[in-house]
Amino acid sequence: MTHAPSLTPQTRQLTISEVRLTPILVADPPLLNTQGVHQPYTPRLIIEVVTAGGVTGVGETYGDTKYLELARPFADMLAGRRVTDLNGLFALADEVAVNASRVENSVDVGGLRGVQTADKLRLSVLSGFEVACLDAWGKAVGLPVHALLGGKVRDRVEYSAYLFYRWAGHPQGAGGEADDWGAALDPAGVVAQAERFADTFGFASFKLKGGVFPPDQEIAAIRALAERFPGRPLRLDPNGAWSVPTSLYVARELHDVLEYLEDPTSGTGRMAEVAAKAGVPLATNMCVTTFGEIREAFTQDAVQVVLSDHHYWGGLRSTRELAAICRAFGVGLSMHSNTHLGISLAAMTHVAATVPNLDYACDSHYPWQAEDVVAERLSFRDGCLDVTDAPGLGVELDQGRLAALHRRWLEDDGAMRDRDDAAAMRVADADWALPSFPRW
Amino acid sequence: MTHAPSLTPQTRQLTISEVRLTPILVADPPLLNTQGVHQPYTPRLIIEVVTAGGVTGVGETYGDTKYLELARPFADMLAGRRVTDLNGLFALADEVAVNASRVENSVDVGGLRGVQTADKLRLSVLSGFEVACLDAWGKAVGLPVHALLGGKVRDRVEYSAYLFYRWAGHPQGAGGEADDWGAALDPAGVVAQAERFADTFGFASFKLKGGVFPPDQEIAAIRALAERFPGRPLRLDPNGAWSVPTSLYVARELHDVLEYLEDPTSGTGRMAEVAAKAGVPLATNMCVTTFGEIREAFTQDAVQVVLSDHHYWGGLRSTRELAAICRAFGVGLSMHSNTHLGISLAAMTHVAATVPNLDYACDSHYPWQAEDVVAERLSFRDGCLDVTDAPGLGVELDQGRLAALHRRWLEDDGAMRDRDDAAAMRVADADWALPSFPRW
Questions:
Q1: Could you read off the pLDDT of B367-422 as tens digits, one per residue?
Q2: Across the interface, do B152 and A294 touch by the CB < 8 Å criterion?
Q3: Is A357 at the interface with chain B, CB within 8 A?
């Protein structure tokens, strides 16, 4: 790729002169999952791409040490390149050496997103830069990010309430910020949480993060939701914690009320076994999380819904490619979320607005995050976000908030810089170990 | 989709104020295929999209009557929309009523591109508008079309020599323009044609349009090419004219010299039968020509290479989606061509420059077209086209040439306005009928 040595005013606007990386720690409530509990603080990385014309684009991705180690050399290679050169980011990512020793070929503790590979890690880092480049490009030319993706096909994007079993607060001695949500550890607690989500944000569909309690307790929680909100789409996601027979048992018990069952079991082969008999669509953000995993899963009909996630699929444009593949194969498309802030929520909304076959309401942890780095928080209305036509992502970075959350990261002794839900659980239960599969 | 009632200077540049459609007839040599011979003149449609800011973008697609009938209402609906609103073109295409009675569910006489469907027809029309919008957008913001597709990943795009059996001239009484290529009706003629292609344009790979003579004669032609150009990639494309046994016979005879065998037989099922035993990759632009045909073909492993064509896949962005699907399924990607001019060649080159897995040199009929509507013809060098960084497509419409070719269309009595290779053949051979399948 050759770049002209002298810049016109137009290309100045689009040429990267500086990249700033700011790791932060954001408060996270004690949300439970099959591997443990969310830490009091979760690491995120905020990326600012500044052009020679003075435009700044922002992006957000995972902030654990292993992501930072890739993001730094990636950032160093961006200066002098154009923000429009998005296909080139993939070759750049290949050039960035992966510290392979840190990438364990095992279930990722923090992400619950299937097997962790060097490729996935690299694409998660790339996505933060891709979003920042799109934001800068959009701001430079006065176009929203959705226009740079071919334009919105809807004016609002629907989100789903993301319900969690949770404690009222983090264990004593763990630190963290307080909130007024209270505990949710049984069907009544889950229903109360859902009611608050429905009242506050207008969400019309509900997903419960499962794999926390024995299946019958979680079945009871879903049944309670179905009684309280008859006819509403419901989802249950135990993060692959169940055996094939247990998965089929739960599917039988809940087939009449589930919109889809998400990752009941681990691995494409077992998912295919369940799918063949479940009578309810299976969704995944664990056995199909990269393009390389699609062929096997789709030819085996192992999944009926793929949960996209621009972070680990390699950006907004890759998310659109995933959508095209799903369209061609008649596989449904929904959207996954992990702990994230307003930048990523804006990015999720822009890409979701452009995808005709986003068949389901998107997941988002956003209501659980009281802290943010954007000047104005995004607001759900009737369970939806309006798609902004403002330039770029349409969000503004609050440098004061960013600095405060970065200070927290700087002052951390290292305990929170890498998300580890099992370690967080051990603060409450010293004997806790990562459950072996299948947990039930 | 809502559009702001008042336009800023920036949105003026991108808002469509006028669309001009100009059907033309371009000279075409007497190239032979299994259905007949190219007419002396082929219809094409030139599309100009003019923005309120005075920028004009150009596109090109098929110009037969049935395409024009869709293009006119499509054009009428574009005024007031943004050239960036490319995803919206698909909903627009759905709104345009298809005159279903004109769309026969049979092999398309002119295109040799598989079963003709209303969907394919609509996407072929859409693609001309998509390219024109991208050209206008690029010109308005000073970016090449490849940048609007995420940026080039290569600086040159390789093309293949497209060899045809042909007569020296059109039959007496048929009209048409003369050229100095002479006849090519046997191995020696094919080799002489290939030598001229190699000398003039530097092409390093060769494709022979087959299905014209009995298979042994075409095998002999490929053998002669292999002897004259040892080690060079060779392709043979009989447009589905052969039975499964004949296809396997040819594959056996030529497996050591063919880069791929294109559409030896008709239909995904038969292609899968051949693919299982051929020992040479099968390519197609007939059994996989829409997204809806991918699933069956890929799960049956019926094809190893898909020939993209932005015209009938629905534009440059859809072509990139096809490429993403091929990447995910480990299927190769090449590029198909039909009779086309410089606008389409520029569009093909821009999209090819952005696709990392364009594994094969692209097809192009361009060297056979002596007439054009662009001010400066595109020039192959070492078999490649340089990827331009000029705004938009980087081509300029020559209004004088456009008017002259349009005049030819106006003055035509209707005989040439719809491409019909069988009808053209009947001028020379009154008994000629469309061959029934399999021809051999």
A1: 999 999 999 999 999 999 999 999 999 999 999 999 999 999 999 998 999 999 99
A2: no
A3: no
Rounded (10°) CA dihedral A216, A218, A221, A226: -90
Positive or negative: CA dihedral A196, A199, A202, A206: positive
Helices (H), A202-315: 215-228, 244-254, 268-278, 294-299, 310-313
- Inform me whether the pLDDT recorded for A2 exceeds 50: no
Same domain (yes/no): A338, A327 = yes
* Pair A275, A304: CB distance under 8 Å: yes
In 3D space, the residue among B37, B339, B340 whose CA is nearest the CA of residue B184 turns out to be B37
Task: Tell me the catalytic residues of B.
Answer: 209, 336
Average pLDDT over residues B147-156: 98
**pLDDT tens for residues A320-369?**
999 999 999 999 999 999 999 999 999 999 999 999 999 899 999 999 99
Whether residue A56 is found in the same domain as residue A200: no
Q: Is A425 contained in some domain?
A: no
Contact A324 B328 (CB under 8 A): no
Active site residue A209: yes
Residues 6+ apart with CB under 8 A from A439: A34, A211, A241, A242
Domain CATH number, residue A125: 3.30.390.10
Q: How large is the average pLDDT for residues A226-252?
A: 98
Tell me how far apart the alpha carbons of residues B193 and B214 are, in angstroms, rounded to a whole number: 20
Instruction: Decide if A299 and B294 are in contact by the 8 Å CB cutoff.
Output: no
Instruction: Please state, in angstroms and as integers, the Cα–Cα distance from residue B378 to each residue in B108, B131, B132, following that order.
Output: 29, 17, 18
On whether both A13 and A107 belong to a single domain, the answer is yes
Chain A residue closest in CA terms to B295: A329
B-chain residue closest to A288, CA distance: B328
Is B7 in the A-facing interface, judged by CB distances under 8 Å? no
* Token duo for residue B113: 């591109």
Contacts of B321 in chain A (CB under 8 A): 320-321, 324
A403 to chain B, closest Cα gap in Å = 32
ipTM of model over 0.90: yes
Tell me the chain B residues in contact with residue A321 when contact means C-beta distances shorter than 8 Å.
320-321, 324
Is the full-model pTM beyond 0.90?
yes
Domain of A117?
A: 9-143+399-411
Gap between the Cα atoms of A196 and A206, Å rounded: 12
A150 touching B (Cβ < 8 Å)? yes
- Are residues B354 and B333 both part of a single domain? yes
Write out the two tokens for A335. Answer: 């959207």
Shortest CB distance from B153 goes to which of A10, A91, A317? A91
Q: Is the pLDDT of residue A4 over 60?
A: no
Q: Do B37 and B48 belong to one domain?
A: yes
Note whether B328 contacts A325, CB cutoff 8 Å.
Answer: yes
Structure token pair of residue B98: 């298809």
Does residue A152 carry a catalytic annotation?
no
- Which of B230, B148, B178, B163 lies closest to B28, judged by CA? B178
